[in-house]
Amino acid sequence: MRTASTKPVLAVVAVLGVAGCSSGEQGTAYPVEPAMSSLAQQTKAAALPPRPSDLPIAGTDPCDLLGQAQLDLLKVTSVPRKAAEAKDGPTCVFDSDKTEPFHALHLRIVSADVQEWLTGSRRKNSMTTAPTSVEGYPAITNYRAAGTPADCEVLVGVAAGQTIAAQEFAVTAGAFSQPQLCDIATQAAGLAVQGLKNRT
Q1: Which tens digits make up the pLDDT trace of 50-98?
Q2: For labelling, which of 8, 15, 25, 33 has a CA lying 20 to 30 Å from the CA of 131?
Q3: Are 79 and 71 a contacting pair, CB within 8 Å?
Q4: What are 103-149's pLDDT values in tens digits?
Q5: Concatenated DSSP letters for the chain?
Q6: CA–CA separation, 141 and 132 (whole Å)
Q7: Sign for the pseudo-dihedral over CA of 117, 121, 125, 127
Q8: Is the pTM of this model over 0.85?
Q9: Over the stretch 13-48, which tens digit does the pLDDT of each residue have?
Q10: What percent of the chain has pLDDT above 90?
């Protein structure tokens, strides 16, 4: 004989029995579609905007991409110079070293696709990497979130397999927040793309 105390238990069992299914047409039950896999979510999140056109940079001197008006906007106070040691392509150094806080911009031309920093061989798990766009071109903001903010790099995919990298360094320790460094790097990257457009 069924007692009143067993009715709630039977109701719970009945509810659990249909969990994970969804009603389609009357009398038909089918499993609910699983959530998007974490890999698919990462791939979707890592999508870059399409490139409006190619801006070839092979053979370009990065020191020639910024004119005096652009240097003034970036508060560069010394003559642009080629880096003594190029990291992975032609590199120009723009110093702001007349008044505190001191900072420096390194502008590089890299023979690699911008996607490499997001999902490819140049990606580093120690870096915070986010897709964005600069002057309508696919770009990536790349920086190390841990510790005192030291630099921020913005990479712009101006053509297939060709990237402009603008990396802003805080020379005066502790004088810049991470967003400030990334803002300067983004501004410099945009000015460099404009300079490249003017050369084509």
Answers
A1: 999 999 898 899 999 999 999 999 999 999 999 988 778 999 999 999 9
A2: 33
A3: no
A4: 999 999 999 999 999 999 999 999 999 999 999 999 999 999 888 89
A5: ---GGGHHHHHHHHHHHHTTEEE-STT-EEEPPPPPPHHHHHHHHTPPPPPSS----TT--GGGS--HHHHHHTT--S--EE-SS-SSS-EEEEEE-SSSSPEEEEEEEESS-THHHHHSTT--TTSEEEEEEETTEEEEEEE--SSS--EEEEEEEEETTEEEEEEEEESSTTSS-HHHHHHHHHHHHHHHHHHHHHH-
A6: 7
A7: negative
A8: no
A9: 343 444 444 444 444 443 333 333 333 334 344 589
A10: 66
Length of the chain as a residue count: 200
